[in-house]
């Protein structure tokens, strides 16, 4: 990955931040995109200090198609040849039966998890095809494989990510562009805080009594995908904590 340009969306926290750290350690040049510019600047300073990484920060809302197209099409010349795109930006809102769901929550999930991924990929991918080099890595979820109660729309968006990844791989046959999806189970990040809109007590119960994955666990797998030999494409990786067997079955140890 030395001096390869890696674009990470949703880079200000969680899996995206962890990906920034492992790719910086591997010698990549990083384009970090997220809505929270202050967090990006703090992260960039840490990466420059710890790994002497070259970092370009972009304040970007992937849901805004015009902003995505304008920002990514006007990258400075030294940053235009993106080698790896990590579509990490995503979220979940609420945990309700569909008949009780919030349409605003649905739209936010669809706009971010599906349309945002499409906007960024559509803008970056033609350059990869033209240069005949690149790798698109989507961060999916076990929710894209197994629907769970009250997860209806979130699960649907992650199933869409899975289908889009498969479709992209089909469309790119005959090119050297690689396409992967990394689909985790329970990962302790800000995910549940966002889902429950800052209700941290409720968010903590999601991981209570078990040892969840960390953002670093996922980032290590993403880096592994990106550093295989050019003829090797890891299409799909599902990883879960040892305490988790499916989207709905987990082992929780009693609290002492």
Summary tags:
256 residues; alpha/beta; Rossmann fold; 8 helices; 7 strands
What does this structure look like?
This protein has a single domain, classed as NAD(P)-binding Rossmann-like Domain (Rossmann fold, 3-Layer(aba) Sandwich). The model has no long low-confidence stretch (mean pLDDT 94). Helix content is 42%, strand content 15%. Helix 4 links the parallel strand 4 (82-87) and strand 5. With 256 residues, it is α/β, with parallel strands linked by helices. The chain contains 8 helices and 7 strands, in the order βαβαβαβαβαβαααβ. A 7-stranded parallel sheet has the order 3-2-1-4-5-6-7, sandwiched between helices. Helix 1 (14-25) crosses helix 8, helix 3 runs parallel beside helix 4 (103-131) and helix 4 packs parallel to helix 5 (152-171). The chain is globular, with a radius of gyration of 18 Å.
β-strand percent reads 5-15%
Overall tally of domains: 1
Tell me the number of helical segments per DSSP (H or I, 4 or more residues long).
8
Radius of gyration: 18 Å
What average pLDDT do the residues reach? 94
- Structural class label: alpha/beta
Instruction: Tell me the name of the CATH homologous superfamily.
Output: NAD(P)-binding Rossmann-like Domain
Instruction: Tell me what the CATH architecture is.
Output: 3-Layer(aba) Sandwich
H and E order: EHEHEHEHEHEHHHE
CATH fold-level label: Rossmann fold
Overall body shape:
globular
**DSSP strand count:** 7
For the largest beta-sheet, the strand count, sense and barrel status come to: 7 strands, parallel
Measured as a percent range, the helix fraction is 40-55%
Read across the widest sheet, the strand sequence of neighbours is 3-2-1-4-5-6-7
Q: Which residues form runs of ≥5 with pLDDT under 50?
A: none
**CATH top-level class:** Alpha Beta
Question: What separation lies between the terminal Cα atoms?
Answer: 45 Å
Query: In terms of quaternary structure, what is this?
Result: single chain
